Amino acid sequence: MKVTIIGGGPGGLYFALLAKKAWPRWDITVYERNRPDDTFGFGVVFSDQTLDTFKAYDVVSYERIRRRFAYWGDVDVVYKGRVMRSGGNGFCGCSRNALLAILQDRCRELGVQIRFQTEVDGLEQFADSELIVVADGINSRIREKHKSHFRPSVDLRPNKFTWLGSTRPLDAFKYFFRETPEGIILAHCYQYEEGRSTWVIETDENTWKNFGFDWMSEAEMLPVLERVFAEELVGHPLIANRSIWRNFPTITNATWVMTEGETGVVLVGDAKATAHFSIGSGTKLAMEDAIALFEALRKETSPKAALRLYDTARREEVEKTQHAANVSLAWFEHMRRYWGMDPLQFAFGVMSRSKQITWENLELRDPAFVREVQRWFAADVRARGFDIDVANPPVPMFTPFRLRGMTLENRVVVSPMDQYSAVDGVPTDWHFVHYGSRAVGGAGLVYIEMTCTSPEGRISPGCTGLWNEAQRDAFRRIVDFCHANSHAKLCMQIGHSGRKGSTQLGWERIDHPLASGNWPLVSASPIPYYEGESQVPREMARADMDRVRDEFVRAARLADQAGFDMLELHMAHGYLLASFISPLTNTRGDDYGGPIGNRMRFPLEVFRACRAAWPQEKPMSVRISATDWAPGGLSGEDLMALTRMLKDAGCDLIDCSSGQTVPHQKPVYGRMYQAPFADWVRNEVGIATMTVGAISSADQVNTLLASGKADLVALARPHLANPYFTLQAAAWYQHAGQHWPLPYLSGRDQALRNALRDRAELTDVKLRARPASHELKDETGSSVKRAA
């Protein structure tokens, strides 16, 4: 087969050597526009795990790479005069020039032809090739020439960065955070060979302009940065190499493959997709693309079939990496948000920012670092008036939390989940068992599903209600049992369905109207949920608002009489109050429509009326949809404004959810995917928050709390599968202070013993499964100096 590779970077070269080694008879040529020793940038980074992969595919190039790498296991976060070190990470740095030279030499040894200083503007000259690999980088000419086919998307991120070098030696990957009169500026730094280190400088656009970098030349910029980081450079200079300031482009493509006549064309590396430098994955992604393409060709008999396989099989891993990179870069875009944090919490946030590294990941790598964070968190809770053992502290999820006169035993929350099992709004024995078992299961706070304030405000015929004494008394039975047999507090969530009412049960066709027996609906505006299928709601008049407000107040009073500890108003997911908040569902031309202040007028009126009726010593929260996940929906400015209004009105906690406003939403899912909203509100507005959304483990709960992204963590589906989630987590973390019901005490003792053994065994398995260190050492175990 005749193969043409456009672009002589690591991705193109690595594919060339793998393919030529496997199929020596293939005619493979690499075309590179630059000279062999031209390079832009300084060092590249790989993890031990990535080096494991390289070793498996070509041991010759792996050994040469390993012998040129600078190796380190520590990450230092330098912030406000403190150095927080986290060890056990296992990374290697190498100069980009050295890596390219190694791959070029290996290609030549195997018989790959490399043609340097050759410009390629189109595919026409390679019509005789059966496979064309497009590896021409972030500004790919081929991709742009055929953009109508590949359909690229480029998201230019707001922060500015420039890539520099230095002669300063470094013993760890270092983040140097600096606050200056011009603003906050950061250096991402690592050593890549003897006497050489990479310094990526990053800052926001305002700080960049305040320094004057927008008009400075490269030569003028260097002394300014050397002055800012003088303490960190310790007399060493910064080195430029076409070090222009840029905005990072996050690139995606709808497809990575194309057919030109009989020729298959495929994108790899940055031409295909980019990942932000803060997770160090650009070169890694490119070389792993080469491996994935190589594997696809091994599995399929025709090039075209192989390219189809590559475009599907490789996509999930690339998208996961890009998602982690996007979460990571967002943390750095909002450095100012975290600037008031304690250094240890700040450092933990840096380490866990991408969500790929969590509490237990870090604990496995560096138990001492996590123990220090754990002690700090406990000391911070103790300073808030709680009697907590700082010498032998619990993990964050088992620390108490107070809202007004309500104190929670721990930070675990059973999220409100509709059961669709009420009769005329009255909870049944199903609800008694459901809520009772979750309270006994150890959660600090148990939410009741959205309970409707009137028959017309129900989502479905199976929804619970709170508009009469029979419903109140049925709830009282549940509350009394939970209080008598657990330490859990109970929150009543009240709401009105609005335009999403009169629909089928959740396990039928959710959000679709009933086949018969529908009741009339009201909303902020006469917009049906499903156009042409759902009922058109009546736009609420002032008299409707008065009636609905009074129904909420009545429900609040009944909730107090039933003994609930906390009250939440549902202003999310497109239900009635939310329909006023979102511009997608509120098109009114009166004082209740238009800007966010007007759109919040009625929801705030309801909140204030309920707050006045609800006992002052009991807290109130509000569930919001922080984004509609749809164009034209709630903006970030709207989110900040509405949460500030709620805080000023006396709200104690913002329950941050998202979406479900319109059926054409496009959420970006992933682990803990809604946590950034709780983080934003908590650290920008200064109000307690609760996060929910694809949170499935106690490890994730601890990660979110320790990093300061939320104060409480709600889990939904995990609690459906396991009512005793919290008790089992208490055993796992050996937290003997967690309350267990008296009949379960013998089970507690066994759970603690078994968990101690199970955790030790799992830790041993994880340690054994970790990739081995690839640091080059002599027979005495000492590090070997790398080749020049």
Verbal overview:
- The chain has 788 residues and is of the alpha/beta class.
- The chain contains 27 helices and 30 strands.
- Strands 5, 6, 10, 11, 12, 13, 14 and 15 form an eight-stranded mixed sheet that branches. Strands 20-21-23-26-27-28-29-30 form an eight-stranded parallel beta barrel, surrounded by seven helices.
- Helix 3 runs antiparallel to helix 4 (96-110).
- The model has no long low-confidence stretch (mean pLDDT 94).
Which secondary structure elements does this structure contain, and how are they paired or packed?
Elements lengths: L1 E5 L3 H13 L4 E5 L11 E5 H10 L1 H10 L1 E3 L2 E5 L2 E5 L4 E5 H15 L2 E3 L15 E4 L6 H5 L1 H4 L1 E15 L6 E8 L2 E11 L2 E8 L1 H7 L6 H11 L1 H4 L4 E2 L6 E8 L3 E4 L2 E5 L14 H18 L3 H11 L1 H19 L9 H9 L7 H7 L1 H16 L18 E3 L2 E3 L3 E3 L14 H12 L4 E3 L3 E2 L16 H17 L3 E7 L26 E2 L14 E2 L2 H20 L4 E6 L4 H6 L14 H4 L1 H13 L6 E6 L10 H13 L4 E5 L17 H11 L2 E4 L6 H9 L5 E4 L1 H5 L3 H8 L12 H25 L19
Parallel strand pairs: 1-2, 1-9, 2-8, 5-11, 9-17, 20-21, 20-30, 21-23, 22-23, 23-26, 24-25, 26-27, 27-28, 28-29, 29-30
Antiparallel strand pairs: 3-7, 4-7, 5-6, 10-13, 10-14, 10-15, 11-12, 12-13, 16-17, 18-19
Q: Structural class given helices, strands, pairing? A: alpha/beta
- Specify Rg, calculated over alpha carbons: 29 Å
The dominant shape is globular
Low-confidence stretches: none
Helix residue percentage: 25-40%
Tell me what portion of residues adopts beta-strand conformation: 15-25%
What is the terminal-to-terminal distance? 38 Å
Number of strands: 30
Main pleated-sheet profile: 8 strands, mixed
